[in-house]
Amino acid sequence: MAVYAIVRVDVHDSEEYARYAAIAGRAVEDHGGEFLARGGPCEHLEGTGRARNVIIRFPDMETARTFYHSADYQKALSYGLPASTRDYTLVEGV
Questions:
Q1: Which residues, 6+ apart, have CB-to-CB distance to 26 below 8 Å?
Q2: Tens of pLDDT along 52-80?
Q3: How far apart are CA 7 and CA 17, in angstroms?
Q4: In this structure, are residues 28 and 79 in contact, taking their beta carbons and an 8 Å threshold?
Q5: CB 2 within 8 A of CB 59
Q6: Is 5 within 8 Å of 89 (Cβ atoms)?
Q7: What is the DSSP string of 36-68?
Q8: What digits encode the pLDDT tens for the residues 14-57?
């Protein structure tokens, strides 16, 4: 069953975050992920929103977890985490 990574981000250092994005994008593709939304315009109707929203589809939960904990993605996070405030959630599809 498909799993969706829902990532909500406020970027504080765009230069460092660009380094994150370059590595992370390749890692997503290498792990069979597909970007469905990647930071386009958004409208927050309820709750606290973030400026950037990303949705990635993975084939299953195990693949999504393997991606997140992979060496490549952890390298990307070494740039992304200090440069942003983030929420990262995995949700199983229906």
A1: 72
A2: 999 999 999 999 999 999 999 999 999 99
A3: 14
A4: no
A5: yes
A6: yes
A7: EEES------SS---SEEEEEEESSHHHHHHHH
A8: 999 999 999 999 999 999 999 999 988 999 999 999 999 999 99
Tokens at residue 34, please?
A: 């597909």
Sole residue written with tokens 């460092």: 16
How far CA 83 is from CA of 60, 62, 72, in Å, comes to 29, 27, 17
Please report, for residues 25, 33, 41, 47, 71, the alpha-carbon distance to residue 66 in angstroms, rounded to integers and kept in the order given: 15, 11, 29, 30, 10
**Cα distance between residue 67 and residue 45, in whole Å:** 31
